[in-house]
Write a structure and sequence with these properties.
The complex is a heterotrimer. Chain A has 15 helices and 15 strands. By secondary structure, chain A is α/β, with parallel strands linked by helices. Chain B is mainly α. Chain B has a two-stranded antiparallel ribbon with strand order 1-2. The chains are: A alpha/beta, B mainly alpha, C mainly alpha.
Amino acid sequence: MLSRRILALAGTAALAFAACSSGGTATTAPSAAAPSAGGSSPSASVAASASAGPSLPTAADLGSTQGQSINVLAWPGYVENGSTDKTVDWVTDFQNTSGCKVNPQIFGTSDEAYTLFSTNPEQFDVISASGDASLRLVRGGFVQPVNVDLFKSYPDIFDAIKDQPYNTVDGVHYGVPHGRGSNLLMWRTDQVKPAPTTWAQMFDPASGYKVSIYDAPIYIADAAVVLMTTKPDLKITNPYALDDTQFQAAVDLLKQQKPAVSQRWTDYLKQMDDFRSGTSNVGTTWQIITNLLQGEKPPVAVDVIKPPEGATGWSDTWMINSKTKNLACAYAYIDYLTSPETNAKIAEWFGEAPGNSKSCALTADKNHCTIFHADDDAFWKDVWNWQTPTEDCVDGRTDVKCKGFDAWIAAWTEIKG
Amino acid sequence: MAGMSAQAVPATRASVTRRVSTWMHAHPRFRLGLLLALPLLWLVVVYLGSLGVLFLNAFWSRDPFTSLVVREFTLDNFVTLLTTEVYRTVTIRTVTMALLVTLTCIVLAYPIAYYMARVASPRVRGIMVVAVVMPLWASYLIKAYSWRLILADQGVIDWLLKPLGLSTPGYGDLAVWIVFVYLWLPYMILPIFAGLERIPNSLLEASADLGGKGWMTFRRVIFPLTVPAIAAGSIFTFSLTLGDYIVPGLVSTTQFIGNVIFVNVAQNLPLAAAYSLVPLAIMLIYLFIVRRFGAFDAL
Amino acid sequence: MNSGRAARIGLRLATAFVLAFVYLPLTIVVLYAFNESGTNAWPPSGFTLQWFGEALDNTGLQQAFLTSVLCAIGATIIALVLGCLISLAVSRYQWFGRDSISFVILLPIALPGIVTGMALSTTFSSLSVPLGILTVIVGHATFCIVLVYNNAIARLRRTSRSYEEASADLGAHVFQTFRYVTFPSLRSALLAGALLAFALSFDEVIVTIFTAGGVKTLPIWIFQSFRLANQVPLVNVAGLVAILLSVIPVYIATRVSSEAVSGRT
């Protein structure tokens, strides 16, 4: 008869070995997913697999959504389930009709989204990826090509955001466009007089503002946008295509701005806290932040503009994890989110132009699409949607090398000091 | 022994355990092996092994196009760390903050620990131990976040200082210092308290007999005896400050080592791994130093 | 001991100041748990109990709480077993590397959490181990071992070997000696260590962020709640409840460790 102690030891050893040994479930890919593009010769293999034609799922492959459950990694405001505001909910109805559970998780920057997605490759089934995350996800093999014919809403999506370089690679679609918007300049109307009119003022400490800026390397593009107006001899044509000289100028401008910066935000609630208390009184923001501040009791006195220099912006794509086990629900929920009614609600709640052209007739404010220029291509000419800078200049120049995103990340660390 | 063998139990049952035990008694090395097997497997294989994997990653690089790790040996990361000024600046800033926080914690912790250990009555001492330990159970995140509210413009401190014509220091390095001191203070109070409690009264009586007045006794007898305890507490205050990135993110815009590592974890894992060797090395050196002060015995 | 009157008054003042410093933020947390407006504006606008009601309804919070308890229990058990084993090995035997082992045991808690977290998560991903509750427990147990070890070794150093030898002389075999002689004297030290380990695991966030995958322990839930507008007040409620609940284990721990603290003479 073994003593209880040895039994306990053996049991603990078993537990320890179980914890330490490699789990075997990590690498089952769904049957319909195309080969991923990961590895050390990326562009070649993406092209190769694309020209061979990835096998896209068919309606029969999807199956039923009943009993499935998806984790959705989304920008704040995109997947509301009533927890922010009881009346704002486009999750519960979907859950009731489809039988699939939706678990939202929000992130603050594309880099954070990429980090979350890439370090937990099986955790999230669906992600709303902006242009500066989408291609990194594609190249890393984290997301799968989608069959756009399976989305009822797809034909109604504005043409201007379909087949863009950040959601379509060599003719292969990697997601469904959601909507687009521009970053805006917000200020405390009761503390800052006269009101600021240009981004350049925000970059100049002499203006005396307490500035709140977005804490991500992609913000360097905002400095480049300012330089497009203030230093035209730099000949910047695209703020994501910066050669050495142009890049250095943008970095210098940000270093010049640094003494005025009172906050760098990634959580939109933190920007709200700072504007409410007055720690910051001018900053780069999203429309939803302004709306929430104006809607508080008592309301915070803020206003927004898109300055004449143009702005950076974003155009988001709903993408599907290449390893998801809940493909049916992923397709169903994305279709739901991009359907005219829901897309209208999200666009109004977040404050952006909807992706579905039929949403414009369904927004509560009939002027919504006009205000957000949903169909106004001229407006978007000076809005530079987030995209990942690469060494092959994205503006098409071949005579110089541009700075890749690596350099942007390193420079951002340096700027912050 | 004679009595045991006369018991009416089935001879085989007792003797298996007894035979194993006797065998083990004669083979102490086997007993030792049995004791050590599991912990060493855990600590050496799992923990040190994963540190080794991190160490390996520091010598690899990243494909800029796919952001995936390329497993070819390179020293590029270390070159970057040494040549780019910002990494030096951040390291120095973090180490300075860690030392400052440690010193402040010692200064704040000693009087209260002394009071608890040597001045307070046993009943008060019991209450005070509970009072000091309780905040450790309140969530670290909630405590840090509450400081964010306290230090905000028009927050609590502003409200308290306005009648005096002052205002809150707001967010920044000062705020980071205050919050770190706040969070790690109990980790310094407890070891010093334990160390002071361990000093026998007889030593102090002897010192008094030899003519030492209060301050002299403190300086020459009490304080030196508590140095190991102070060193032990400083391990926590130093190490916890060295690697933290959440607090600087909540109450400042300044970058510390933890922030730089965290930002790079997915974007550039090899660089993050290389940079994480810096606090690791600093901490190993620190541990060697405090070990000489007897910290390991006073934990 | 005579400290002089001025010194005593100075000590009392210093103690009062430090205690006020320590409890100020906790008071703020309590205040905000009852704050009517859900925002972080100061001063609080009114009194309400609604957040407690919402906290009771919030399944995410409850789930996170249970997950944290589960992980803490798992980590504590592993830490107890491993800490006990290794403290017996260190205190009762001589062997090569004995002095450096205390260094290695201390490392997980002495090294910055971000280093430990990164190391573990990189290893798990290269071994294709899925992140989840087990990986969280592994991470927590690793730095909780030292808490059990320290208490156990201090106790073992103080108890004389002669009891165990006497037990063997009286005919007890190895396991009986452990069960009837060594373990009882070790019990309260192990309990103190277990309480510390539980507390540390329950509140740990940095290593957990790296090893949790999608699992939400309470600290992770709190961290994510900071970015969800209407959940911030719930965080204050969770904080208040944690403070209140902590009285029990703290009381137990101090009672238990006061047996362990040696007398003054």
